[in-house]
Amino acid sequence: MSKFPRFTVFSSAICLFILTSIASGGADETPMVKIPAGDFKTGPDMKTVNVGEFSIDKYEVTNAQFKKFYNDLEFEAGKENHPVVEISYFDAESYCKSIGKRLPTDLEWEKAARGEDGRLYPWGPTFDSKKANTNESGIGSTTPVGSFKDGASPYGVMDMSGNVWEWVDAWVDADKQYRETRGGSFFDDRKKSTVIGTLKSIPDDIHTFIGFRCAK
């Protein structure tokens, strides 16, 4: 169950996007990447779908960022720039709303990670342990966001394979009992840490390997 109280929106952000793919984020000042509207290949069958333009955080939300939202957050010294974990879907959703953002949909997340060509990993078709924090890396815990620079997606979004699973705004089942997370984690191997890798979890659940990023 979530260890944080439910929050209401207390601020909204007004963003002035510069004329490049990287834009200023919300009140958290996180850089965002603008993903253009258009078709891309989704899922294992690479079905072509169209997704409208959106922006997504370049990095996962960190401990330092989340602590500004919830001052009682505790984490190990030196892990300020690591992704925040043990966050329920509701906590992630509340954080994003508080800075004028939202959680990405599953299709938005996948397009930002995959690009348009149907690749299996953000950097290409084959796995490389030097490009993501997965079980094969042997690190055994989270790493600072953006540590694996060669693992960027085609749009320049970081850590979309490994490090932590990320909540997305999607239900896994028709009964709406389980929310979806994407991308694998330090705890998982290459098979789960693909751009189509998913893990279901009840919205109230928290884990040391689940975090999130925001979109708008």
Can you describe this structure?
The protein has 3 helices and 9 strands. It has 216 residues and is an alpha+beta fold. It has a single domain, classed as paralog of FGE (formylglycine-generating enzyme). The protein has a 4-stranded mixed beta sheet. Strands 1-2-5 form a 3-stranded antiparallel beta sheet. A two-stranded antiparallel sheet has the order 3-4.
| Topology, number of strands | 9
Shape: globular
CATH topology: paralog of FGE (formylglycine-generating enzyme)
Radius of gyration over all CA atoms, rounded? 16 Å
Task: State the end-to-end CA separation.
Answer: 27 Å
Q: Which structural class fits the helix and strand makeup?
A: alpha+beta
**Biggest beta sheet summary:** 4 strands, mixed
Q: What's the assembly state of these chains? A: single chain
Helical content band:
10-25%
SSE run:
EEEEEHHHEEEE
